[in-house]
Structure formats: structure tokens, C-alpha cells
Write a structure and sequence with these properties.
9 helices, Ala_racemase_N, pyridoxal phosphate, TIM Barrel, binds pyridoxal-5'-phosphate, alpha/beta, PyrdxlP_homeostasis, pyridoxal phosphate binding
Length: about 230
């Protein structure tokens, strides 16, 4: 049976190979370990193998894990859908939010970010798969949203995040990720982050410029949503 440490080694090799294939410096691609549904012990194992950044989708689950792991210097990223009544806890307990897709949520995060913490790093989630996805702002709405968010005081707009419709077709993967990269470039806001690529499509995402790949299954194994 492979361990989390083995899996981190394998994913790191995939990242290295994907970066080399397009003459990118592998250090420009960061690995976000998506620990949703996995116990605090799995995070501990990943930490022992060198991981520092962890992504969570469900607030209550994340807060529980954070409480068990206060002895470790971890950086937490919120990557799931955000309801208004969850913004305060997110603003107080995370370093990054990858899944902002409307101004109201960004305004609340800015107002609620504690003054003693650094600005909250933000990615705008953009929907490049049309009706196939419910989350993410439309490409048409993106420029105004990005302008407005970049003006909010307690946030630091870093870039875009996307979850394209899953496909095994490399050309389709490339087209979706290239669209995200081009949207980011067209904003002209000097953004440095593209959060895109998951276990099945990280090679394509890296070829198109990903700076964070968000990896769950390939690090921690399949998720079992039946076992809370
Ligand atoms: C679950 C999740 C991931 C990780 O997906 P895997 O296919 O398990 O690597 C990445 N990003 C988001 C937003 C997720 O919800």
C-alpha cells in the first residue's frame, strides 16, 4: 500500500516532468494538498513529508481539523463554495480563498479580516465551462469583479481559479486552462496566480501556466463521502 509520503513523491515527479516539458521552472508550481474528507492524521503525515499548504472545501470540517493541528505551522486555503454566513470564520482562519465568485462575498471577507492578520489572498473562481458548472463568475463579469475586489483594503487579489468540466481529452483540458490564463492576462492587474489543475489534469494545467495545483485523490487516495 502506498503511503501519503510516497504519493507526495509521485505527484512531485509529475509536477517536475510537466514543468520541464514546457521549459518552466518547477519551483513556480506550488502543490496545494486538498485534505477535504481526510482526518487530521492524514494532514500530519503530509506535513511530516514536507507539505505546508492545505485546501479545504467544508468550513466546519476545516475548523475541526485546524483545532487538532494548532501545533503545526500550516497555511490553510479555502477552496469550496462560500455562503455569506461563513465569511467571518473564513476571514479569521484561512490564508487564502480560491473560490470567490461575487463581490458581496469579497466585501464581507475584507470587512471581517482581522486587523492583526496579513491581507487575505484571493483568487476569483471563473467558469470557463458554461452551463456545465454552477460555480464561478462568467468571463463577461470578470473584469468588473476583479477591479472591484482589487480595491478592497484587507484583501490581496492574486489571480484566478477554475475547475473546468472533467475530461480525459488533453486538447480539451488545454483549451479550458488556456482560456483561464488568457482571461488573467487580459485583466492587466499584474496578477501572479493561476489556481488550476487537479489529480487528473495537472499536466495540462501546468503546461498552460498553473502556479497552484490543487491535489486531493493523488495524495490522499479516493474520498469516501459515505463515512463522515
Ligand atoms: C476536491 C477538490 C480538488 C481536488 O481534486 P482531486 O481530483 O481529488 O485532486 C481540487 N480543487 C477543488 C476545488 C476541489 O473541490
Amino acid at each position: 500500500m502506498s503511503t501519503i509520503a510516497d504519493n507526495i513523491g509521485l505527484v512531485s515527479q509529475r509536477i517536475r516532468a510537466a514543468a520541464q516539458a514546457v521549459q518552466r521552472d518547477e519551483s513556480s508550481v506550488h502543490l496545494l494538498a486538498v485534505s477535504k474528507t481526510k482526518p487530521a492524521q492524514a494532514v500530519r503525515e503530509a506535513y511530516a513529508a514536507g507539505m505546508r499548504d492545505f485546501g479545504e472545501n467544508y468550513l466546519q470540517e476545516a475548523l475541526g481539523k485546524q483545532a487538532e493541528l494548532t501545533d503545526l505551522p500550516l497555511s490553510w486555503h479555502f477552496i469550496g463554495p462560500i455562503q455569506s454566513n461563513k465569511t467571518r470564520a473564513i476571514a479569521e482562519n484561512f490564508a487564502w480563498v480560491h473560490s470567490v465568485d461575487r463581490l458581496k462575498i469579497a466585501q464581507r471577507l475584507s470587512e471581517q479580516r482581522p486587523a492583526d492578520l496579513p491581507a487575505l489572498n484571493i483568487c476569483i473562481q471563473v467558469n470557463v465551462s458554461g452551463e456545465a458548472s454552477k460555480s464561478g463568475c462568467t468571463p463577461a463579469d470578470l473584469p468588473a469583479l476583479a477591479e472591484a475586489i482589487s480595491a478592497l483594503p484587507r484583501l490581496k487579489l492574486r489571480g484566478l481559479m477554475a475547475i473546468p468540466e472533467p475530461t480525459e481529452d488533453r486538447a480539451a483540458q488545454d483549451a479550458a486552462f488556456a482560456a483561464v490564463r488568457d482571461l488573467q492576462a487580459s485583466l492587466n492587474l499584474g496578477l501572479d496566480t493561476l489556481s488550476m489543475g487537479m489529480s487528473h489534469d495537472l499536466e495540462s494545467a501546468i503546461a498552460q501556466g498553473a502556479t497552484w495545483v490543487r491535489i486531493g485523490t493523488a495524495l490522499f487516495g479516493a474520498r469516501d463521502y459515505g463515512q463522515p
